[in-house]
Amino acid sequence: MQETAVMAGLQNNLYEFKGVWTAIATPFREDRQIDWAAFEKLLELQEQAQVSGIVISGTTGESPTLTPTEKLSLVRKARAILSGKVRIMAGTGDNNTQQSVELSKLAQDAGADSLLVVTPPYNKPTTAGLIRHYSSISDAVKIPVCLYHVPGRTAHMLTVEQITAVCKDGKVKSVKEASADLGFFSRSLKATGLPFLSGDDTTYLACLSVGGTGVISVVANIFPKAFVALTEAFQSGNLTRAQAIHHTLMPAIDVLFCETNPGPLKATLEVIGIGKNVVRPPLAEVSESNRRRIAEVITSTQEQLKGLV
Fold first, then answer.
1. Which of 18, 134, 148, 225 is catalytic?
2. How far apart are CA 212 and CA 197, in angstroms?
3. Is the pLDDT of residue 236 over 80?
4. Fold type of domain 2-236
5. I want to staple 213 with a disulfide (CB 3.0 to 4.6 A). Which of 75, 195, 284, 307 is the partner?
6. Each residue of 130-145: pLDDT tens digit?
């Protein structure tokens, strides 16, 4: 009976949280204001690749240095550009519950289809505090909430028991799991019965193999078509093709994390002609040696993918 209920819950949420979701970068001009033309170009690349959705103002979107007004403007702009086939998830997490609630309501009104809410960093809430945090947000909106577990950023690694309790009592509908720990991913997925999106490009194919429903990807900013092709190959049972695409993407995945994300991504976007290599402080642009390395790897990957996707 419990297994049946778990599967029913998974199917109910699967439409919303499956496939390739791109953690969209926020392009900036030289004056570090949002480059709206580059943002539109980046969204068009995603729509042409037929990704399932995009995530706005997450880690890759430089959410800590975006104002609430900018975050909402990004959602509105994306809603105006994208067709209804591409879902929009808005990052509204904060370590102040009330501020997260207010931003979540505004993001819903701006056109977001779902919300990405990171476990609160710095103040290290207990399980009871996390449940209160997520239930407060879930109760305030009508759109689903995706819990974002990224201990490398928050310094807060949840246990399987904690994430299960928070998802159940906090009314969470999906999880972005970015610990890069396949064992934790697998155990948490089974325990919660929710759709799990990989938050780690390196282990994405492995996550699919244990029941993951998709990915929230950094590298899909550059190669969305390849990530969609990898996913479709796995789902159709063509593991050989999925593995070939994965291995071809690995050098690009590695180089895009040669420094703190999204620094390398901004350099890469400039290479492919979308915006400038500009981040907001306290982040810094990648070193010149890494910038050259990025250009070489991306050019090579583009050539190798021509025979695959």
1. 148
2. 6
3. yes
4. TIM Barrel (3.20.20)
5. 195
6. 999 999 999 999 999 9
